[in-house]
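Usage

Read records sequentially. Each one opens with the input sequence:
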Amino acid sequence: MEVHHHPHSENLPAGQAGKRFKEYFLEFIMIFLAVTMGFFAETIRENVTEHRRAKEFAESMVQDLREDTAQLSSYREYFDFAASATDTLQQLLATTEPGDIPSGKLYWYGLFGGAHRYFVPNDQTFQQMKSSGSLRYFKKKVASEVAKYDRLCRIIQTNQVLDGNIYTEVRKLRAQLFEFKYNDIANTIYQANKKSFDYNRVDSFTRSGPPLLSNNKILFNQYIELVRSRFLRRSIVGYADSTLNQANILISELKKEYHLKGD
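and closes with the structure output:
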């Protein structure tokens, strides 16, 4: 049997061995450069893709936030008015017996102790990014502002849940003092004044003398205490203000970071 021997570089003349080594080294360099350039190309491609996706998410989130700011402005305005009305009711009852206060005023200012509205954030984009891990596409500062906004939204939602039980008790007690049909008239006037304010409508109602179901001082005192616990330090308005402010900050950061156009 014949045995075939492969030539080794050590058996080659010095010139040919050096040439072979240079060929191997050059081949290694070419492979190394190809792998390195491929790595850099893939990294650049991923960065471009992530930036494009981040911009798409930013545009979608800005739209969500614009809807939130409109909702928060209305939410804040409503509860600010309600808190002001309940302040007036407290002042009236602090100095005068319920039976000596015009019943129309008690109906009008007492109506807003039962003010009720939910803020539901438009967080579809945020939830999609959170579940898919895409929040990492946002720069650190933007991601931080997103987290702040989400935290404030969750505080409002938690407070709304906590307020639910008090709200139910307020409505129960209000039903012992005020007749529903006159509350409904007062609410209709309020809704009409949101579209076109006319103080004469309010004045006419407060002078109309709608009958109370009770002018019992103890019941009115209980009602005021429950209402105060809802509007104490106007926390509802305060959190709405903070959340609205953070929404505007986040919109500004997203537009600046991703060069988004529009108002």
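Summary fields computed downstream for this record:
- Residues 11-258 form one domain.
- Residues 104 and 203 are 9 Å apart (CA to CA).
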